């Protein structure tokens, strides 16, 4: 179960990434062999290591959402994720999240022990996820994404990206509320890298405080190792974007992020401590916020 402290304001919840895919942009293929077999034991060990590093939640995914990624069938996504979730539920106490846009995959994940649903499409891909989350008492992470991952990077356009993302996330939140998900179980995410240019990503990180204030809900940010950081700071392979990731995540926390979705939890834990202390010092200087 999600305890009171996770995804609540005044601390930073660390969501560790566990991708069970052959093709995720940063860690694809770590647990999937040539024949497509998932090495569940290795995945569980990696999950336990993330928890030792400080992960508050583990986010398990069976389909890459990187731009241009191939679609995965429902059966394949369940085959990749459900057995690992079931084993993780026995091996750790932290809440388990399923990163999916698909109803059947989410159902199988809940049956296997997940209590968080991370929908990068913010209920646009399948609005029925809202009723499912309500029925199962799950925490729902609502991401911002226009269109589909396969085509999202084809000329994204916004006039005022912060205002438009806030409004569109607000529509996702309304859908969740109407289906009966209480505010205490809703987290919003501006969808860094999801149908956004470099400038859009920067504007969203710089404008996080506005998004958080307008929606009044905890905000999760997922910049970890994404390509805009490589464009800004160099580093060829995604794994070389570690320092750039820490810089972006520090700023995100300073601007108000309540949760970070990260590959390197140990680094994020230290970054978040410093950035949160600075944010609280700023708030104290402003007479509290
Ligand atoms: N980013 C990715 C996947 N899921 N979920 C949320 N809520 N926010 C994000 O920013 C986010 C996400 C993409 O990163 P990754 O899982 O590392 O890669 P891939 O989609 O290639 O598996």
Describe this entry's structure for a reader.
- The chain is built from ten helices and eight strands.
- It has helices at residues 40-53, 74-91, 103-112, 128-136, 161-178, 198-206, 208-215, 227-233, 242-254, 265-285; strands spanning 13-19, 57-61, 96-99, 116-119, 139-143, 186-189, 220-221, 259-262.
- Strands 6-5-4-3-2-1-8-7 form an eight-stranded parallel sheet, with helices on one face.
- The longest helix is centred in the last third of the chain and has 21 residues, at 265-285.
- Bound molecules: 6-hydroxymethylpterin-diphosphate.
Produce the secondary structure layout.
Blueprint lengths: L12 E7 L20 H14 L3 E5 L12 H18 L4 E4 L3 H10 L3 E4 L8 H9 L2 E5 L17 H18 L7 E4 L8 H9 L1 H8 L4 E2 L5 H7 L8 H13 L4 E4 L2 H21 L4
The structure holds 6-hydroxymethylpterin-diphosphate.
SS element count, helices: 10
Order of helices and strands: EHEHEHEHEHEHHEHHEH
* Residue runs with pLDDT of under 50 for 5 or more positions: none
Q: What is the fourth-level CATH superfamily?
A: Dihydropteroate synthase-like
CATH fold assignment: TIM Barrel
- Reading off the top of the CATH hierarchy, the class is best stated as Alpha Beta
What binds here, in terms of ligands, is:
6-hydroxymethylpterin-diphosphate
